[in-house]
Structure formats: structure tokens, C-alpha cells
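Case study 2.
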Amino acid sequence: MSIGNHIHLAPLQLGELPYHPNLHDLQQKDKYIRTQFIPASNNGQDPCDELGRPHLRQFLVAILNEGVAFTDNYLYNDQFKRSKITSSPPSAAKVTLGSTSFSQEHLSSIKWEDQAPRTKPRKLQKERWFSRRSQHDDAQGPWTVDFAEFKIGLLQNHSESEKAYTPDVLDYADEIQSEGCSTISNYTEIGAQIMEMAHEIKNPGVDNRVFPELVITAQITPSSFIIIQIPVNISDLPVALYSNGKHLTQDRNTPEGQVIPQAKHKVVLGAYASVERVTQIQDPNNSSTKNDWAMATTSDARGYLPMFAQKLALPGAINKDVGLFVGWVCGRRGGGDGDNGGL
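Prediction:
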């Protein structure tokens, strides 16, 4: 089964991103500009502009289509080998965990120049993907989350919410936001931004990790939405914070105005790719409505964290996120029993 050319561990380069005012000067001299993709004419139908950059609309649709195809063909089609069914307190829903792998040979066979084209990465590493899937009663009941709450927490404020409910996320930096493409084709409420997610590693002698990400979110239908995260190399981006070391001399504050001292620590840049989808479904057993929350991820924290250790830890981490999110949403209502309104 084929996979797309964007949602992988190999980071996107600046020259492979659509035009943005904060990127233009860098893209003009970017060594990764793909001159082989420069079109003969720029009439809006070509995949790229005169500098070889993909047009924003085609770029977003290509990645959204890739994410939808990945969930349809892999997550919803049992292409992940199931490892176990477990719980994630305080969530009332059970969580099914799974995994699959894409070999270097498989990745090498990808048509990297298809859709919104990108250069075939010089170094391809085997990708080990881990998945989880849980089905939540579509109600603001005890330790359940309704669809509107999923939308607010995951679709509309994804990175901000992740920091709020994930204890080891110490900071997030919103570097670039794309505007002007909220609706394309069948996708609505589209968002696209470059983020840096900073994670605190509490093990002595291990540096904090920062994951520079292109985050794309969209409503697919009134009852389904998707979140896609792709690694991006922004080390040369002046507005970046962690990727170019500016965090070492700049204070970072919490929303309450308190300085985050850990944000000035040395960091290692990692890579993280994921696809996440929430869809309302009908329970075949009793015709009730469920919110099906499915996600898959692959990552490389790099540095001195051995890959075998990362693979052992990741299934537990993504399972724990379910309970963290549900607990956070229920707590935001005003109490854990879910009887005090929405977010």
C-alpha cells in the first residue's frame, strides 16, 4: 500500500514550503530549492511558483489528502498490528494500541515529486509508527468528551492545548501562521502554522527536546477533523526561538507572566510526525454516538536517547495522552464529573 511524500521523519526544508513573508529571503537562497520543479509558466495551475515553491492551496490540499488517505488506509483498515487494549485513566474509554513499520526500501519507492513536490531526502531511515484508537461517548458526562470539546481542544487550539494538558511540554513557540486559505475544496477551518514544541526531560544529564513542526489542521466533514504534524528544518529562520539558539538568552513566560527557567536550558532538536483524526460514528450495538479518536506517530528524539528505548516508551506515552486530555477537558468544565458545561 502506497504512502505519501510529506508525513515522514525527514524534515521539510524552507525551500519546500509555500511563500510566506518571513520565508521569502531565505527561500531565494535556500540550497534545497528544487529548480527541476520550476514551471514554464506560472498560471496558478502549476505545482510550483517561479522559485520552485509549492503554491499554498495545492500544498495544503496535498498534505490533507495524504493525511486522510493514511487514516483511511492504515488506521481504519487494520494495517497497524494490534499490541493490546488498555485503559488511560481517568478516561472512560478503552484504548487500542498498535504499530507498523516502513522500511528504507519502502520509503525509497515513494514518488517524492508527486502532488506538492519535494526533494527526495538524502538520508532515509526506517520509520516505526505507533498508533492508538479510542471511542468516547459523545456527551459531557463523567470522563467523556463530546465532539464540540474535541474540536476546541484539538482542532482549534491544538498546540496551546497540548501544552496545557501535557506535563512535560514546558513551552511552545508559534513562529509562522499562514492566512487566507481557511476553506479549500471540501476542507474547512484550515489552519497552518510552524511551531516549536519544547519538552522537558527530567532525567539527569539528558537535554530537553524541541520538535519544530508544521502543524496543519482542518475540518473534513461536519463530523470529522484532522491534525497533521510534519518535521520542518527552521534552524536558519530568524523568527525561530529554539531551533537557532535564541532561547538561551531570551526569557519565556507562562500565560500568568512567570518566567520558565527550564526554557533557557540546552536543547536537542528532534523529529516528530503524526496524523490525528476525530470522527463521530454510530455505535452498532446501541445506536449511540461515539467520538472515534485515532492517531499514529513516528518520532526520533535524537541525541543520546537510544532508539530502542524510545520505541519502548512511545506506546505508553501516546496512551497516557488520552487520559491527560480527557481529564483536562473535564476539569475545565469546573469539575471532573462533567456536569458543569463546556470549555
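The helical segments are 24-29, 56-75, 104-108, 147-156, 158-165, 307-332.
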